[in-house]
Every structure is written in structure tokens, then in C-alpha cells.
Amino acid sequence: MKLDLRAVYESEAGGVYSFLGRFGLRGPDLEDAVHDTFVTAMSRADSYDASRPVRPWLLGIAFRMGVARARGVKETSAEIPEVADPKQDPERALEARQAQALVQQALLTLPEEQATVFALYDLQGVSANEIALSMGTPVKTTYSRLRLARQAFAAAVKRLEGGAR
Amino acid sequence: MSDELEPLDPGSRSLLSALPSPPLPPELKARLWARVEASALALPPVTTGASGPSVAPAAKAVGVGAAGKLVVPAIIGALVAGAGGGIAIDRALRTPEEKVAIRYIDIPRQREVVTPPAPPAPEPVAPVVTPPPTVMPKPKPAAVAVASAEERNLVELARTALLKREPAGALDAVAQHRRKFAKGQLNEEVDALEVQAFAQAGRADEASAAAKRFRAKYPHSVFEDAVRAALK
Chain A residues with CB inside 8 Å of B68's CB? Predict the structure, then answer.
């Protein structure tokens, strides 16, 4: 089985970049995480089942790369200056940054399988069927993980918001 | 089945709806592809399971066709790890029987020029590191930010040297890391790189000793596959 990396990159790079951006990565860390995602995907070609959709498999890898980056840059991210976008309302930009930080922090507190399912389903809109196929688990298990993940996520957000006050 | 799932609570829904979805600019997409392609072509030789046959060098196994398509055979087992800390989550989608030999093959960003040092010298020369021009640490937290960036750069330096089959340069970077970051965040990764560097240098006894120390210190490390592969 061969994986046409160029074709996969062409069709999926935008989605991976956007997904990791929603997760709160930016600048060099965002670029590195996208790079790592595709190189890791290439190196994992032997674990890719061509009968299954490539997107959730790739986004699963992307999320792991994103988490690794987020943990690695956690202490320094506050020092990365914002790149001002003249077209963007500063207030909305700030709101978005705060939301990203909160979502990222909350996700980092979740067990890995729950965090992955939540990120794919609720952050990126991948269907439960696709997630189940890519993880090799029954759909029922995916929903069960998602339900627990949502509860844990909501609790983490509440806790983090409470701590920030 | 989806009807078993209750709706996302309003607070979470509101929070997620505030997240931006940044588009990938075409110029950046092309630049990133160049990095990905370069990393693919730089993959070092990798061996699979204990009794498995040696795999041809990835640089040969990865083909770039006439149409510019990069086709990757399904035999390559390697993992590019960015930051070490969160790799444990890697297990989430990994099948139980999957064996992955961890190698470090990242190609640095163009604007972060990391030059491996010369072969070992009595007084190791500090790495030439050009930090990203867009990152301007603020005065107070600068010490933390610079130290962390320096630590990551040293790890990248070691990786790059291994990629170039320059184990001496990798060992030099490892030594520098040890001196500067006795309690660094990437010590586990660096210790694994040391095993790989000794092995690549043909210093089998030192590689075995380093691996023994590594396993005693990190019995459940995510870098264990890389250490094991290096010793073969």
C-alpha cells in the first residue's frame, strides 16, 4: 500500500492548518505542527488503512502534534507578540485568542482518547463514524468517549474560568 | 446512535463558536510542502522488528515522480517528534501491534538556521542559532523564553547532526544541553538522542551503557523504540 503524500497534502493541508489554528497554535509553532503532521503521516503509512478515510486519521496525528507543541510552548506562548491584522476588529481578535487559550488549556486536561475525540468531533466536525473507523473502535465507543469528553471539557472550562477570576 | 448524544452544552458551544479558523495562505502552503518533502527525502535508513529485514534508505524508497508527486512506500517506520512532552497521547490512534522506530528527521524552518557544530573539539563551539525574527520576547519573561528556545534549538541541532550522519556533532549538542539544562524539559529526548548518536558513531559499548541508563531513568519512555532501533 502506498500513500500519495503529495495528493494528501494538497487536499488536506488547509484543513490541518485550520484545525491546529483553532486549537490555538500560531506562528512558527503552527507551521511546525503542520510539517510534523505530514511527515509523521508519511512515516506511518504502514498503519494507514486505505479503505478508511484519510482525513480523521490525519487529524488524529495533527492533534497529537498540536498537543506536543502546545505542551512545549506553554510557558513561552504568552511572550509571542500578536501579529496585528488590520482587517480584524481588535476586540474580536482578543476574544478569539482568549477562547483559543481556554479551549486549549481545557483540552490538555482531558484524557488523551477523550481529547482526541472531542477535538475531531466538536472542533473540526469530523463525523463519529469516521472517527470510529480511524480509531478502529465501535461507533458506540466513540459516542461514549465523546459524552465523557464533553462533560470533562465543560467542567475544565468552568474550573479554568473560576481560577481566572 | 447519534441520538444517544446529548447536545453540546451552551457554554462550550459558545466558546467553540468564538474560535477562528485561519486559512492557509498559498505561499505558506508551498513553503511548508517544500519542508515536508525535504524531510521525507532526508529520512535515514530504518529497520523494522527484531527479525525483520533491513529497510532500504528512505531517501531511495521515497520517490518523487516526474509529475512532482511524492509517493511513500508503506514500509517506513519513523516518527518525527516536535516537542517531546505531549507525545504520550500518540497512543490514542496507534494500533496495539504497531511498531514504530523513532527517528528524528525534522528539517528546520528556513528562518531558523541551525548549523551543526564542527566535529568534537576540546572547547565546543556554541551553535549558531538565529531565532525567528518575528518573536520578540518582552523584557521581563525574556530569560525563560530564551532559555526554552535555546533548549529546543540544541535538540534540533542534535537531530540535524544525526540526519547528516554526523554523530560527533550530535554528541556535542547533547553535551552542551547537559551543561546548560541539567533540569531541562527535554532531557528524556536528549538522552535518547545520545544513544542514537553513540550507535551511529559505531561506539557500541557506550551506546549500550547510555541505553541502560536511559531505560533505568525512563522505563516507559515513548522514545524506547528509537533507543531499541539504534542498538540494532
Answer: 6
Q: Which grid cell sits at B211? A: 541505553
Neighbours of B192 (CB within 10 A): 29
Report the 3 state secondary structure along A63-77.
HHHHHHHHHHHCCCH
Tell me the C-alpha distance between A44 and A32, whole Å. 18
ipTM confidence score? 0.84
Of A39, A46, A140, the CB nearest to B36: A39
Q: Contact B85/A147, CB-based, under 8 Å?
A: no
Measured in whole angstroms, the distance separating CA A64 from the mean position of its chain's CA atoms is 7
pLDDT in tens, B23-65: 999 999 999 999 988 887 765 544 333 333 222 333 333 433 3
Q: Helix (H) and strand (E) counts for chain B?
A: 8, 4
The torsion angle over the Cα atoms of residues A11, A18, B79 and B162, rounded to 10 degrees, is 100
